[in-house]
């Protein structure tokens, strides 16, 4: 069950980091990856996600073209906003770069250990004993390479693994994958380690110098005041000067770190991914499986549509023909009765039309196709009587039926909030992470929402189950109510 | 004629009842679920039960299951099944229990009131009413069946009308031929389908059944 003391700022409540695509989007012209909606009247940034999808998946250098591009975004009227977005982007890039370098430092340390082990095993092979340890060493190497692939995939385009390499010595000697992994091991345990270490050092320096005035009085006499190891502060002015040095460190971090992160990841991306000669049958098998799952969800969706057409709309139209048939038979004997039947037939036809509209809308709400999930949700929020904040950071595309489901979940949830919750404020957060769409709707109402209480939640749950997703509702008496939904993106 | 209607859509159920009552037929009960329908049939023992195929809980073949069960409990009950679409497995499932007092029609046929009432009467009087659409589909699917392949196009037409439940005179009228010609065709059909007069069965029914069985066997 989700916690109820969720802070209003949702940036920290999702247990994952932004994926690299998110960063790509942040950089894309005219968009922020995040769309915040604070009530009717504001439509800023609404159209972002769709437009930004064009840049999805590119791994090219993101930083170099930014200043020029950024100039195009706001137009001449908004230089201030331009500057601010530029600063935010640079900050985000640097923060992501630092995180990436630090995690890379971790694997680089392990790489160093494995490198030493490999060299020792190789030496031991000369006297024969090493042959016993070769399989273990190779297995450790493959495990580390796999871990690095996962890590790099988290920070950028997926690094596709080649076929699992052999662990016996003789085939391993000629195996291209093993050779490439060894080449990576050498680079990562040296260059990668160095870059990671530098990043840590830069961070340490920046923090030390920035906070220097807070603690310089406590530092031992005559110890050096700056991170560079020279100069001794004797006065408050000196101490504040050290803070200026921190500004320099931060500038270096902003300027260099994203590039360093790219360089650190490069050998892994090049050497650990499946080479052109690699057999991709495993990968194909995986893709086939996910594709089958997607088709399955699709079939379920079609079944749902078929049902609503046969059991709803068709029955309505049959009713029309039945009433018309009866009216025709009656028109001679009892014109008044026939008139009444015709009246009923007409209203049944009107109902059929209304149901047809509902079915069509249920297949794919037109607004979803026109404006994307973020735009469609903002539309829902605008028509919701309870002030509602929509926060969408959907970096991965989802199948249209999945986005439609997300849309209906929010539509139903907002309807319930408006009708029953007594809330003064609601909030909808949408994130995509590792092929899953996470959706969360919270309100500050009096809680006590009951799924069996005849709400439309039952239908929503069925729809989610059809997509192999999950739904969790937490609504203690006194509130708040939290609805959490997770769906596979299906792509 | 006493009738029980089972249809889960309330508006359509009401419309059907209205139509039949306007024709001064006696609708003794209506039901929205197969269980209620069986209860109503047990209670009122009507002459005819009109059942929708898709009913709760799963909206698949509840009506067919209910029809088979109702006929098991009340062998004398006439059953008219209304379907949203033609599904051969439904048709054969129903018809293999015997085609007497049985009807299987597409829902929209109800709007053609005269034909619908005609089918209803035919079923109530011990005959059969199979939707022309069902029959047409059975025929297209059975092309590869060697025995049916032996039939001439005219004979196939006659068999199709037999499957719809029409009598000889009605068939003759439809095809604009004499009763004698229809007789000749039917004898020829029986011969080609290896149905001898010595068999203790209604050969008309057997011909249609044989044919439906073939369809079912081949899945």
Automatic annotation (TrEMBL), chain B:
**Is Cytoplasm among this UniProt entry's keywords?**
no
Q: Which Gene3D superfamilies match?
A: 3.40.50.2300
Give all 4-aspartylphosphate modified positions: 52
Instruction: Extract the GO molecular function terms from the UniProt entry.
Output: DNA binding
- Highest taxon of the lineage: Bacteria
What keywords appear on the UniProt entry? DNA-binding, Phosphoprotein, Transcription, Transcription regulation
Q: Which residues form the HTH luxR-type domain?
A: 144-215
The biological processes this protein is annotated with in GO are: phosphorelay signal transduction system; regulation of DNA-templated transcription
Any signal peptide, and if so, which residues?
none
- Where do the Response regulatory domain residues begin and end? 2-122
Name it. Two-component system response-regulator
User: Which taxonomic lineage is given here?
Assistant: Bacteria, Bacillati, Actinomycetota, Actinomycetes, Kitasatosporales
